[in-house]
Specification:
One of its GO terms (cellular component) is endomembrane system. By secondary structure, the chain is mainly alpha-helical. 74% of the residues lie in helices and 0% in strands.
């Protein structure tokens, strides 16, 4: 939501700066200010939602992921090795879903064919975003587990 808010603010400001004619029957100035204000509200709501979600996770006792993107990428081979050696934080079903996602991404068969101009790529993009997010979250939790294990 925060990213959507930033996008709305940018659209509003660009409307204010570069648009002279009316937009949807409204003056460009009013439309631009309205978009910028809406974007600021959506951005603030997104930050508040993210903070509340983090508080709920901490209250539920869920481990908070650790590490930045590069640390998480470097931890992936260790995560898979630890999984073979008995690490229980990564279920076999998730590894299977990752494999299915990879096969889907490289496969020429799609739910929505690439012949459709914009829609053809969106299913692949959605699968890729899910795959990267899932791998990042799992390796972040693994990094937290590794660091906690070293401290003990």
């Amino acid at each position: 939501m925060a990213l959507l808010g930033v996008l709305l603010v940018v659209l509003g400001v660009s409307t204010l700066l570069f648009r002279d004619a009316d937009v949807l029957g409204l003056p460009a100035t009013g439309f631009g200010i309205g978009l910028a204000v809406l974007g600021a509200v959506v951005f603030a709501g997104g930050l508040a939602w993210r903070a509340a979600k983090r508080r709920r996770r901490i209250a539920a006792g869920e481990p908070e992921p650790a590490g930045n993107v590069l640390e998480r990428a470097r931890a992936l081979p260790r995560l898979l090795r630890a999984r073979r050696e008995g690490y229980t934080g990564l279920p076999k079903s998730r590894i299977a879903l990752w494999a299915v996602a990879l096969v889907y991404l490289v496969s020429p068969i799609d739910l929505v064919p690439e012949l459709l101009p914009v829609l053809g790529v969106t299913d692949d993009a959605g699968v890729l975003v899910w795959l990267l997010t899932s791998i990042s979250a799992a390796s972040g939790v693994f990094l937290r587990w590794e660091r906690d294990r070293v401290r003990q």
